[in-house]
């Protein structure tokens, strides 16, 4: 049985559906605004993963998907329940709690109907400034993190893409299917996307691309950041061709910046990350819907709609390419020797003891020593490695040029390697 706070949240937000249903096709900013206002309402209390308010948000998202004509993506259900772990923003324990990914399916056409594009945005945020122990009334302004730009903005743009794709549906020709998904657990370690990519409702080798929207509610000088352009050869042409409205596109080849697309990149699925850039209200209670620029968001939605159509209609294969970027960091913990380079990518999709390698860059210190994708690193230079933060701390205790012994688990065997650590400045 749902808690009273959950029921209250559903009822409070449900009234917004009427305004969405009557919005005209020409009112893209108003459509987007309606979604963003609903998601940032105090009754949803910042949508922290594992809370009744996040459950209510998931129910609302499913209702919106149904109203726009999607099919449930998870074997007849809109929801994929996932176990949560770790801690929330304010230190609250998440172990034993669950969250829900919400996804709908739009069928494609012809010979490409069995191929899939995933379009996603996380709906969770940081919740209340002081977490509630149980059901609690909606917080006052300043007592919760509305998460308007991060990431009601991304969710709102995704729903506009759903609407546009439905209204512009053309059953002729060949076109890829789409899974539209709103992830839970992004703010606590990409938990929702990490779970979904390992428990997809379709075969993983049928997924040709993933587009992720995060923090797209404000732009500076019409600049829109698009990363992952190099993860398949055809993306560069399509990303440029879709830009018919003069956006200032800042392109990056890799797709390793910290959001849900990373979970798909580690599974060798080409990704594009659509991002609006840094903004002053980040992770503050001031990140509320009046700070959003709905005209800008409509421009982003129109651009992204054209881009999605190009990807869906692309007749050739979309092979994944591994891309290294000079600005990729191993982590953000405190320590010295940030220039020390190891040359691996973390796998966020599995909960294990150790640091699992999702990939090893060609020519990197790790590759030269013989480490491989799938290795689980358990020791570096005498320090036990239990997760990504412990790996980062151990790595930064060494300088470029140091020789360190590394112990990994590989297919049931324990192997030791000597790695000559590199310098980030020397990467090509």
Can you offer a commentary on this structure?
The protein has helices spanning 4-14, 16-22, 28-39, 52-67, 148-167, 191-198, 235-241, 261-265, 294-313, 365-369, 388-396; strands at residues 71-72, 79-83, 98-106, 116-122, 127-128, 144-145, 177-183, 207-214, 223-227, 248-252, 271-275, 340-341, 344-346, 355-360, 376-380, 383-384, 403-410, 413-420, 422-423. It is of the alpha+beta class and 428 residues long. It has 2 domains: 4-313, Aminopeptidase, CATH 3.40.630.10; 340-426, Roll (Pdz3 Domain), CATH 2.30.42. The strands form 4 sheets. Strands 1, 2, 3, 4, 7, 8, 9, 10 and 11 form a 9-stranded mixed β-sheet that branches. The longest helix has 20 residues, at 148-167. Residues 1-25 and 325-335 have low confidence and may be disordered.
List the helices and strands and how they pair.
Elements: H1 4-14, H2 16-22, H3 28-39, H4 52-67, E1 71-72, E2 79-83, E3 98-106, E4 116-122, E5 127-128, E6 144-145, H5 148-167, E7 177-183, H6 191-198, E8 207-214, E9 223-227, H7 235-241, E10 248-252, H8 261-265, E11 271-275, H9 294-313, E12 340-341, E13 344-346, E14 355-360, H10 365-369, E15 376-380, E16 383-384, H11 388-396, E17 403-410, E18 413-420, E19 422-423
Parallel strand pairs: 4-7, 4-8, 8-11, 9-10
Antiparallel strand pairs: 1-3, 2-3, 3-7, 5-6, 9-11, 12-19, 13-14, 14-15, 15-16, 15-17, 17-18
Helix pairs in contact: 1-4, 2-3, 3-5, 3-9, 5-9
